[in-house]
Amino acid sequence: MKKNLVLVNTLFFIFSFSQKTMNPIEYKSSPKVFNIPGLSQSVSIDCGSSKMILLSGQVPLNSDGSLVGNNVEEQTQQIFRNIENILQEYGGTGKDIVKLGIFITDISKTPDFRKVRDLHINLQNPPVSSLIEVSKLFRNDVLIEVEATAVIKNKR
């Protein structure tokens, strides 16, 4: 009798606190963003009442893979289009971004980046950020790359 009670309580405990899905990780891509073979555009991690979305570094390429813009401001506009398109796949927007990692080839152009960024983020609670000047990105004509992490409430 005592063994049965322990077994029932143990099973109840295990099933009460287990994940609702077997795999809390989901990979997604947006057809509106250029897909580079060998990497995922994003991954979602189910955190219970919300999901954390990690985005690969976004560059100023349109869905065809063509470079958009020849200055930091124009390139940042394309980057945030890409970020918004990916977040829409999860039901989110740029307002859900909690962290940005910015890699820029000329740190003096930071105000041009911020002008565009501020149109897409929650300015009341801006994301934490790291800004790093780099000597070069994967192509000479790419001036900026942005990584983003977002947290989106799950719909219940």
Give a structural overview.
There is one protein chain. This protein has 156 residues and is α+β, with helices and mostly antiparallel strands. It has three helices and six strands. A hairpin with a 3-residue loop joins strand 2 and strand 3 (50-58). Helix 2 packs parallel to helix 3. The chain is globular and about 75 Å long. The mean pLDDT is 89.
Brief synopsis:
26% of the residues lie in helices and 27% in strands. The protein is built from three helices and six strands, in the order H-E-E-E-H-E-H-E-E.
The ordered H/E elements are HEEEHEHEE
Class of secondary structure makeup: alpha+beta
Give the CA-CA distance, first to last residue: 39 Å
Strand order of the largest sheet: 1-2-3-6-4-5
Shape field: globular
Strand content: 25-35%
Biggest sheet statistics: 6 strands, mixed
Please count the helical segments: 3
Low-confidence stretches: none
| DSSP summary, beta strand count | 6
Radius of gyration, rounded? 20 Å
Mean pLDDT, rounded to whole units?
A: 89
Helical fraction: 25-40%
